[in-house]
Design brief:
Elements lengths: L10 E4 L7 H6 L4 E5 L4 H4 L2 H8 L4 E5 L8 H15 L3 E6 L1 H13 L7 H4 L11 E5 L11 E6 L4 E6 L7 E4 L9 H19 L6 H23 L4 H14 L14 H13 L3 H16 L5 H12 L7 H18 L16 H11 L11 H10 L2
Helix pairs in contact: 4-5, 7-8, 7-9, 7-11, 8-9, 8-12, 10-11, 10-14, 11-13, 11-15, 12-13, 14-15
Bound molecules: 5,6-dihydroxy-NADP and zinc ion.
């Protein structure tokens, strides 16, 4: 087991109607609130009005229109400007992972004198941030329980995972009923994203029985509950378990003491989303089985055997490569069964920019150091196989 140094300072408040506690929670941070949200889903589900009513004693400044794959310009820059102009005390992020991620970049950017991109691109280190409270409305990213935010800069095709412990949300509200309206597309994409977060931690050199058990169960939980959510979007029990499994997925708790994996599928998917603005979870689901096939070798096969036997109940008496291949096929079949388009062409990506994207990934994502190292030619081959 590897050494680690771990802390998640976020308070989770979970369950139906839990946002009744919002005024009391917000009051500890101050009265001037930047309310951030996306393209309007929170208005359709009545959450916007509810928040405004609950916070009628607060001064609320709004930043709306934060897009999926949140953009540095205008959203982060507008948020930073509003925080500075109004001397905001606390940010309340209401929405999916994109709203939360954007709010994190705003939180540190607002306490920094220079260009906020310096922080996101790790040219400078933040020394302070505005506290963040969030109400997450889409189960997927785990942004409600981690210190990461993924920000896109359109003109340079950059999509950067910006992590800073200052950006852990102070408090996250998780009410599964607010996820009842998430579309089938985003429910499935959210499942694929969270499953991939677990796989990115599972496929590594050094793990423990304890962590493997957490992660194998996490994957099974996501597969079972997502199917139920798709069948009945208002199944509270299924939405609740899916939400909590997603929350655990991305803050490292599943892999304490494991050796690093390099998060290769996320490294590659960042380029797909940056160049083509596709849905993150769909990009992951498309490339994951091809990444698995590409890295399957004598060195990696035992991990796939464990995954296949424990997650998909494949017969452990088969040849080890046969188990691995069945496990990869089962992964593909599951994603397809929940309605995810399983080729890059179906999400609008053709071969024309594969070499450019592979180069971008090779230069920026450090995947030559992944558990199964990937060079530029490997990345291009995985993208090509995913077409
Ligand atoms: O913009 P609105 O109108 O709110 O609509 C959103 C958006 O169109 C909609 N939506 C959200 N909640 C809803 C809802 N529709 C109906 N009912 C609701 N309750 O869903 C659409 C997608 O929202 P988005 O926030 O983009 O999805 P998600 O939560 O999957 O976030 C994706 C972003 O998170 C990043 C991804 O790269 C991507 O940019 N990630 C963040 C991570 C993190 N912070 O740790 C880790 C992940 O690996 C991921 O990279
Ligand atoms: Zn992800």
């Amino acid at each position: 087991m590897q050494n680690f140094n771990y802390m998640t300072p976020t308070r989770l408040i979970f369950g139906k109607d839990c946002i009744a506690q919002l005024p009391e929670v917000m009051a500890q941070f101050g009265k001037k609130v930047l309310l951030t949200y996306g393209g309007g889903s929170i208005k359709k589900i009545g959450l916007y009005d509810k928040v405004k009513t609950l916070l009628s004693d607060f001064e609320i400044i709004e930043l709306s229109g934060i897009q999926p794959n949140p953009k540095y310009d205008p959203s982060v820059l507008d948020g930073v400007r509003l925080c500075k102009e109004h001397n905001v005390d606390v940010i309340l992020a209401v929405g999916g992972g994109s709203v939360l991620d954007c709010s994190k970049a705003i939180a540190t950017g607002a306490k920094y004198d220079g260009d906020p991109w310096d922080l996101i691109s790790y040219k400078a280190k933040a020394t302070a941030s505005i506290p963040i409270v969030d109400i997450i409305t889409l189960a997927a990213t785990g942004s409600e329980y981690d210190c990461g935010g993924v920000i896109s800069r359109t003109e340079t095709n950059d999509k950067i995972g910006y992590m800073d412990p200052l950006n852990f949300p102070a408090v996250s509200f998780l009410d599964p009923t607010y996820t009842f309206t998430v579309s089938k597309k985003h429910t499935a994409a959210g499942c694929a994203d969270a499953m991939n977060h677990i796989m990115e931690q599972y496929f590594c050199e050094d793990s423990t029985l304890l962590n493997d058990g957490f992660m194998e169960t996490g994957l099974k939980s996501l597969m079972v509950q997502t199917k139920k959510c798709l069948e009945n979007p208002e199944d509270y029990t299924a939405r609740a378990e899916m939400m909590l499994t997603c929350t655990y997925g991305c803050n490292g708790i599943f892999s304490l003491g494991n050796s690093p994996s390099g998060w290769p599928c996320h490294g590659m998917e960042h380029a797909l989303s940056a160049y083509y603005d596709i849905t993150h979870g769909e990009g992951l689901a498309i490339i994951t089985p091809h990444w698995m096939k590409h890295i399957l070798s004598e060195k990696t096969v035992d991990r796939f055997v464990k995954y296949g036997v424990n997650v998909f109940s494949i017969d452990e008496n088969l040849d080890k490569f046969a188990i691995a291949e069945k496990a990869i096929q089962a992964t593909y079949d599951f994603f397809q069964s929940i309605g995810i388009p399983m080729t890059l062409r179906e999400v609008g990506i053709d071969e024309s920019r594969i070499d450019e994207m592979a180069h971008h990934v090779a230069v920026n994502e450090g995947l030559e150091n992944a558990w199964a190292p990937l060079l530029e030619k490997d990345i291009a081959a995985i993208f090509t196989a995913s077409l």
